[in-house]
């Protein structure tokens, strides 16, 4: 049993996150909702949002019983070792800009807490050394008053070593090839990472860009320098660009070189016949 990482059954210290946000990171106080176990933080946050909850409410947990991934997949976790968070937002700007803000926030929170460089696989997977460390799921809907709400769900593999997880205690073994495709911050930085510190930095990083973009959208309808700056920051972090890739869109497979992204964050793929295809969704391999 020596080589098996057994999860600590430590609960998230929400007061510590509040304290870090208010004193050290200089972000504003947040309305944090913590449940030790939920089906999905996104589902709970969506329920709250549809019932009119204010933006900025953050749902946190130690474990999800039905964590949601992109394109209907499951998101599995090991109790107490991951960051699982969902934030209620009411963006005035389009969802593709939220994709950019969220992935940049994760990249920056990783640099802040671990001093490790992470990159983005289009559109919003966060990778370190080409292995996935975080996933983002944005879901939109309308509340009872008809206003748009967006739930920004973020899952980050914080501690433990993927290759050593005790898969008899988790459903990780259902993820084919996880060991070669995923990683954790502990694995990459060489030290245990505080989930509380990571969450505080993450929320701060989301908030600064989000508020700036909300203000700019009110004033310029999204054509200002902040939108451009965020898009350029995100583009510069995309490890997908310049590579030969395969895009899975359901049963359809497209291959070619990922040349660039357009203003809406869509991927421009040059296929083998020389045609440029605009990719709006799909899984990149
Ligand atoms: O497939 C992906 O890459 C996206 C994964 C998103 C997972 C997070 S964990 C917190 C939040 N709650 C969910 O049910 N999913 C997101």
Automatic annotation (TrEMBL):
Keyword Transport: no
One Gene Ontology molecular-function label: biotin--[biotin carboxyl-carrier protein] ligase activity
Listed EC numbers: 6.3.4.15
Domain BPL/LPL catalytic: 15-214
Keywords: ATP-binding, Biotin, Ligase, Nucleotide-binding
Ligase among keywords: yes
Gene3D superfamilies: 2.30.30.100, Bira Bifunctional Protein, Domain 2 (3.30.930.10)
InterPro entries for the chain: aa-tRNA-synth_II/BPL/LPL, Biotin_CoA_COase_ligase, BPL_C, BPL_LPL_catalytic, Transcriptional_repressor_C
Pfam families in UniProt: BPL_C, BPL_LplA_LipB
Domain of life assignment: Bacteria
GO cellular component: a single term: cytoplasm
PANTHER family reported for this sequence: BIOTIN PROTEIN LIGASE (PTHR12835), BIOTIN--PROTEIN LIGASE (PTHR12835:SF5)
Name of the protein in question: biotin--[biotin carboxyl-carrier protein] ligase
Origin species: Dictyobacter vulcani
Gene: birA
């Amino acid at each position: 049993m020596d080589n098996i990482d057994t999860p600590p059954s430590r609960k998230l210290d929400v007061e510590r996150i509040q304290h870090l946000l208010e004193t050290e990171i200089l972000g504003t106080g947040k309305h944090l909702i913590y449940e030790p176990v939920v089906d999905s933080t996104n589902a709970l946050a969506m329920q709250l949002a549809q019932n009119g909850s204010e933006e900025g409410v953050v749902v946190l947990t130690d474990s999800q019983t039905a964590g949601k991934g992109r394109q209907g997949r499951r998101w599995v976790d090991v109790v107490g070792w991951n960051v699982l968070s969902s934030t209620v937002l009411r963006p005035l700007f389009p969802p593709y800009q939220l994709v950019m803000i969220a992935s940049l926030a994760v990249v920056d929170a990783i640099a802040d807490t671990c001093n490790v460089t992470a990159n983005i696989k289009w559109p919003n997977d966060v990778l370190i050394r080409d292995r996935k460390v975080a996933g983002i799921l944005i879901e939109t809907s309308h509340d009872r008053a008809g206003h748009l709400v967006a739930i920004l769900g973020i899952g980050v593999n914080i501690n433990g070593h993927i290759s050593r997880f005790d898969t008899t205690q988790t459903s990780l073994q259902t993820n084919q090839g996880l060991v070669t495709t995923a990683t954790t911050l502990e694995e990459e930085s060489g030290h245990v990472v505080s989930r509380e510190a990571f969450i505080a930095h993450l929320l701060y990083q989301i908030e600064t860009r989000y508020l700036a973009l909300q203000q700019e959208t009110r004033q310029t309808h999204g054509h200002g320098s902040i939108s451009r700056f965020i898009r350029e920051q995100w583009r510069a972090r995309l490890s997908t660009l310049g590579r030969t890739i395969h895009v899975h869109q359901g049963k359809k497979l497209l291959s070619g070189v990922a040349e660039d992204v357009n203003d809406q964050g869509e991927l421009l793929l040059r296929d083998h016949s020389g045609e440029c295809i605009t990719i709006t969704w799909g899984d990149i391999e």
